[in-house]
Amino acid sequence: MSGHSKWATIKHKKAATDAKRGKMFTRIIKEIMIAARNGGDPDMNPRLRTAITAAKGVSMPSDNIKKAIMRGTGELEGGQIDEVMFEGYGPGGAAVLVNVATDNRNRTVSEIRHCFSKNGGNLGEQGSVAWMFERKSQIIISKENASDEDTIMAIVLDAGADDLRDDGDSWEVLSAPENHEAVAQAIEKAKIPTESSEIAMVAKNLVKLEGKNASAMLRLNEALEDSDDVQSVYSNFDIDESELEAIA
Prior knowledge:
alpha+beta, Arc Repressor Mutant, subunit A, Alpha-Beta Plaits, 10 strands, 23% strand, globular
C-alpha cells in the first residue's frame, strides 16, 4: 500500500466523521468561495465545478452553495479568505504539506506551528518540501465497488488517466489535473461509486515510518486535520498495514 494512498484513506475515513460534525461543510464552503474568485460560472471554472460536486456529495443544500459562490465573487460580504500552503517535516523526516483557508493568517501560522512542534515535527520554509510532491488528480475507488482490475483500468485509461494503482482494499486512479473531470465523469458514467475525487498533492517518493515515529506521525496528522482552518493535509509517509492497524 503506497503511503499517499494510505494517507488519503485515513483522511477520507476521518472526513466521514467530520461530515457528521459539520466540519466538512465548512471546508467545502471555503473551497467554493476561493474557487469562485476566478468566476462564479461552474461551466467556465473547473475548480468551482469540482467544489460544487463535492458539496453535493455531502448533501449540502443548494442555498448554501449559492451563497458561498456569491461570497467568493464579492456579491455578498464575507469572502475575505486567504489560501496558504504550509510546508514542514513530521516525525522520522516525513514531508508534510498543509493547505489552509483562513481569514487570519497570523493566527493560523501560530496554530500550525504549534501542531508541528507538539507532535514531533517542524514547520519549514516555503519550498522546503513541496518539490517532493506532484499536483495530480487522485480518485480512490473501493474494491467492493469495482473488483475487476481490467475493467476499471480500461475505463480510466481510455478517459485519460495516467496510472491505476492497487492499494489493497482500494484502487488509486492518478491523472493530470486537466484530465480530472474526464476521468471522474467516465467512472460516474460506469456507475462506480468513489471514496474520494480531488486534485491532490501526491508524493513522488515515500519515507518508511515505524514504531514511535509512525504513531507520532498519525497524531500530527490528526492535530492538523482538527484545525478549523486546514483544508487538506498531504504527506509522503509509508507505514506497514499491520502496524497501521495496530496503531488504529
